[in-house]
């Protein structure tokens, strides 16, 4: 009986002291927590950059330079190559911005001189990457099947020519027709008619001070229709003359070697 009493006393003594182990573990964890908090409160700039560079390399899947030792801290030469450079939104160059403003101002001037025709829907002025497009209905400029300018349209084109003389941009005049064949002695096809109509506008511009070397003439005939030729309204929309004031786009001229086009080695 005494032996059992001694055994129970020993078990009670062991259980009584066991909480100290848990308490010691808790104190250790608490100490570690405060150590981490203190470390975070004082950031080492060098170690922070190393961590930032490492994360950037991991997410961008960049291959490390060969021959560089994989240590805890990246060498200075490698950290420079991995520095995060913020992307800046590219702004248009000053000459291009100025050119766009000049083109927009020119478009506004053309709208003013053709105000009545614009309101009637006979003229449409737009600005694209190519430049300013002045689309004029052929019914305003010419009689049916003819390439001679109407007298009442000459004054409007003369006002446009005054706006164009103030600039030095290249001008491309494009003639278009519908798909109905013409087949006259003067114009065997719509090709000749569209080219002759564009040439008539070019000649008027030259007579009113626009330099001839700035002008070019293209006749597209029934091609590049902007509406369906199945209706009278669509055919009337396709019969037009477009005056393109071209925007100068800077760029380098690069000659393509023969080897790149034929696949042969030089």
What does it look like?
- With 266 residues, the protein is an alpha+beta fold.
- It has two domains: 2-81, no CATH class; 94-246, 60s Ribosomal Protein L30, Chain: A, CATH 3.30.1330.60.
- The chain is built from eleven helices and five strands, in the order H-H-H-H-H-H-E-E-H-H-E-H-E-H-E-H.
- A five-stranded mixed beta sheet has the order 1-2-5-3-4.
- A hairpin with a 3-residue loop joins strand 1 (123-127) and strand 2 (131-137).
- Residues 62-86 have low confidence and may be disordered.
Keywords:
single chain; 266 residues; alpha+beta; 60s Ribosomal Protein L30, Chain: A; 2 domains; five-stranded mixed β-sheet; 11 helices; 5 strands; 12% strand; elongated
Helix and strand topology:
Blueprint: H1 2-17, H2 19-41, H3 45-60, H4 76-81, H5 94-113, H6 115-119, E1 123-127, E2 131-137, H7 138-141, H8 151-165, E3 171-176, H9 190-207, E4 215-221, H10 232-238, E5 240-246, H11 258-262
Parallel strand pairs: 3-4
Antiparallel strand pairs: 1-2, 2-5, 3-5
Helix pairs in contact: 5-8, 8-9
